């Protein structure tokens, strides 16, 4: 029996030590996930707490087909989304043509590495709607159709929110001098 | 991390995919408490329900019995207060009861006064006050007043001043009449007020069982207790651990019996065990390493430049270390007891019962290992898991000292026996036991 299986068995039996071990092993990574969805650390810890309560409550239903980390991660994401649904995120519908125009302007740029804390700070400063859509699309890999279904919005709204989020982040990265024109890079290489 | 990213999505994904942040310590504490409440909640609700049922039953029985006792007392006293008996109990009384004294015989004022006092007594006894229920006390006062108009003026005034004494007078006076008649009757004239004073004095300091002025046997009191105790683990090393308990208890007493129900917190210390595996580098020799060479122009021989390199052998070691852990339990004690003796303000009692404890919090700090000359391989936590709840059987002998009518101090050497070991794995076959001293204050409102 692997270490993970032992921990799962202990959690199913309700043993506090096993639950603590599971928490210690996955809490730091899951807090990182929650922080992307939240505005600050306190809110992220609340989501984390709620998420782990659900993990221990429903761990009996974990089928061991995928990884335990992936299963816990999905619970955290669902908890974060439920939290924001309760707070009622209002999305503005936008014209599809405007979205395409915005996307074109940034085809020829590249981005330099940025410190993790700086990036996290930039994401947390986004509006709630932008932040949730950005996370679901970029980090979780959902399509706009799936995001629309999860958040009960239209596909166009999902696309517009993502576009606006990217635009805002690029602007802030430009201010940090982390964005370079690719044509300039090509000239240097030549 | 790459030097640059083609798009912002790639930047975000690559930069933050391994992002981790340590949560604050309070997060796990909150999770732990919520898990405990959700798991033990049904047991707590059952226990609270049982406590409420037991308490309500005792209160109901106590309330009903109070009425019956009073009626019983009244009927007893009505038997005792029959005119014939009164005649017998009144020394020197020759006249029949219910007879208004007149002075047709031209007796002296002193004799007349004495006869009037005796007549008072018999007149009062003759009234149907005793046969009235307590609820009709006012009616019986009115009754007294009606009949008092037939009595001398002095008697009417006395009833007006002390209307309630009419009822109390007969109950308490009659109860103690057997006691007091020999002590006072020969010394003083029969005066109900002197008897009242005597009886009240006697009654007030008579009993340590909680009684109110109406003679009901049973009352509630509340205690606050602290119990330092020593736990004997019953292992091979005869380990001993310390604990301290704080309880708030409700006590219902009736006659010499009492029942205690409470709730509290227990703080129990224990040791954590950790095994540290590490590798230590022991030097077993050295060699010269050639870093460069040159040709001596004079001799034509190569000249080597060397440095000394030490050779180490890696040996695995392990050691064990312990930590101080603190466990917090929520306790629910239930006791039944009996007062075996009383001397003035000091009473001695025996009690026994059970205590149910639920683990609320485990404070296990853990360890870290650093050594300049060694490399840590791994640290294994060998602390045994604790069970979430357990039962204890408890017995105590108690000493209680009444400071006032409403405040007592108590001290109880107590013995607690754990129904099973507190560890998940059955490391030791014998269950632990604990010895402590429970001290506290008892309040009666």
Tell me about this structure.
Chain A is built from ten helices and two strands, in the order αααααβααααβα. Mean pLDDT of chain A is 82; it is low at 89-106. With 190 residues, chain A is mainly α. Chain B has two domains: 23-61 and 217-443, Porin, CATH 2.40.160.20; 81-204, no CATH class. Chain B has helices spanning 8-16, 25-80, 83-89, 109-126, 137-148, 153-161, 165-175, 177-184, 192-204; strands at residues 219-232, 240-254, 257-295, 302-343, 346-363, 374-381, 389-402, 407-418, 433-443. In chain B, strands 1-2-3-4-5-7-8-9 form an eight-stranded antiparallel barrel. Chain B starts with 7 loop residues before the first helix and ends with a strand. The model of chain B is unreliable at 76-101, 121-149, 155-160 and 169-216 (pLDDT under 50). Chain A binds chain B through residues 14-17, 19-20, 23, 27-29, 31-32, 35-36, 41, 45, 48-49, 52-53, 56-57, 106, 110-114, 116, 119-120, 123, 134, 137-139, 166, 169-170, 173, 180, 185, and chain B through 1-13, 15-16, 19-24, 27-28, 30-32, 34-35, 38-39, 359, 362, 385-386, 388, 424.
Salient structural properties:
A: 190 residues, Rna Polymerase Sigma Factor, Chain: A, Arc Repressor Mutant, subunit A, 2 domains, two-stranded antiparallel ribbon, 10 helices, B: 445 residues, 8-stranded antiparallel β-barrel, 9 helices
């Amino acid at each position: 029996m692997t270490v993970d299986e032992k921990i799962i068995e202990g959690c199913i039996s309700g043993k506090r030590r096993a639950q603590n071990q599971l928490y210690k092993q996955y809490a730091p990574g899951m807090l990182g996930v929650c922080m992307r969805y939240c505005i600050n650390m306190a809110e992220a810890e609340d989501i984390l707490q709620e998420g782990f309560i659900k993990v221990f409550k429903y761990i009996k239903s974990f089928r061991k087909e995928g990884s335990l980390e992936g299963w816990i991660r999905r619970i955290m994401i669902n908890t974060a989304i439920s939290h924001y649904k309760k707070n009622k995120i209002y999305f503005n519908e936008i014209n599809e043509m405007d979205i395409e125009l915005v996307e074109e302007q940034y085809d020829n740029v590249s981005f330099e590495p940025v410190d993790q804390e700086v990036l996290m700070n930039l994401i947390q400063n986004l509006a709630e709607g932008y932040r949730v859509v950005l996370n679901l699309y970029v980090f979780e890999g959902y399509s706009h159709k799936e995001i629309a279904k999860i958040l009960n919005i239209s596909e166009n709204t999902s696309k517009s929110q993502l576009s606006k989020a990217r635009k805002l982040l690029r602007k802030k990265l430009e201010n940090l001098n982390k964005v370079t024109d690719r044509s300039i890079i090509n000239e240097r290489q030549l | 991390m790459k030097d640059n990213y083609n798009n912002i999505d790639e930047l975000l994904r690559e930069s933050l995919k391994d992002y981790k942040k340590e949560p604050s310590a309070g997060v796990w504490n909150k999770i732990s408490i919520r898990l405990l409440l959700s798991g033990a909640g049904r047991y707590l609700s059952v226990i609270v329900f049982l406590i409420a049922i037991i308490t309500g039953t005792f209160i109901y029985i106590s309330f009903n019995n109070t009425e019956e006792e009073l009626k019983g007392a009244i009927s007893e006293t009505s038997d005792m207060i029959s005119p014939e008996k009164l005649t017998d109990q009144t020394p020197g009384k020759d006249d029949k009861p219910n007879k208004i004294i007149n002075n047709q015989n031209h007796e002296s004022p002193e004799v007349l006064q004495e006869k009037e006092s005796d007549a008072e007594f018999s007149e009062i006894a003759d009234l149907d006050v005793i046969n009235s229920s307590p609820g009709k006390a006012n009616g019986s006062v009115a009754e007294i007043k009606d009949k008092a108009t037939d009595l001398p003026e002095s008697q009417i005034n006395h009833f007006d001043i002390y209307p309630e004494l009419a009822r109390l007078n007969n109950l308490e006076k009659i109860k103690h009449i057997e006691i007091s008649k020999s002590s006072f009757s020969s010394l003083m004239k029969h005066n109900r007020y002197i008897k009242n004073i005597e009886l009240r004095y006697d009654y007030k300091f008579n009993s340590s069982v909680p009684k109110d002025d109406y003679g009901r046997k049973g009352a509630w009191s509340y205690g606050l207790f602290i119990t330092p105790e020593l736990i004997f683990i019953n292992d091979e090393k005869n380990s001993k651990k310390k604990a301290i308990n704080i309880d708030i208890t409700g006590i219902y007493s009736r006659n010499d019996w009492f029942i205690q129900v409470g709730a509290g917190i227990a703080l129990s210390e224990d040791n954590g065990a950790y095994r540290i595996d590490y590798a230590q580098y022991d030097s077993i020799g050295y060699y010269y390493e050639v870093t460069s060479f040159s040709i001596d122009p004079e001799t034509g021989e190569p000249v080597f430049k060397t440095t000394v390199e030490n050779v180490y052998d890696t040996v695995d070691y392990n050691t064990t270390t312990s930590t101080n852990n603190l466990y917090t339990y929520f306790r629910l004690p239930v006791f039944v007891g009996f007062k075996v003796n009383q001397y003035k303000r000091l009473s001695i009692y025996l009690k026994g019962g059970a205590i149910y404890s639920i683990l609320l919090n485990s404070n296990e700090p853990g360890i870290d290992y650093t050594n300049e000359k060694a490399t840590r391989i791994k640290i294994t936590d060998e602390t045994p898991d604790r069970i979430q709840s357990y039962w204890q059987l408890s017995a105590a002998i108690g000493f209680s000292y009444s400071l006032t009518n409403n405040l007592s101090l108590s001290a109880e050497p107590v013995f607690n026996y754990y129904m099973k070991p507190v560890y998940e794995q059955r490391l030791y076959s014998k269950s632990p036991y604990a010895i402590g001293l429970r001290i506290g204050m008892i309040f009666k409102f």
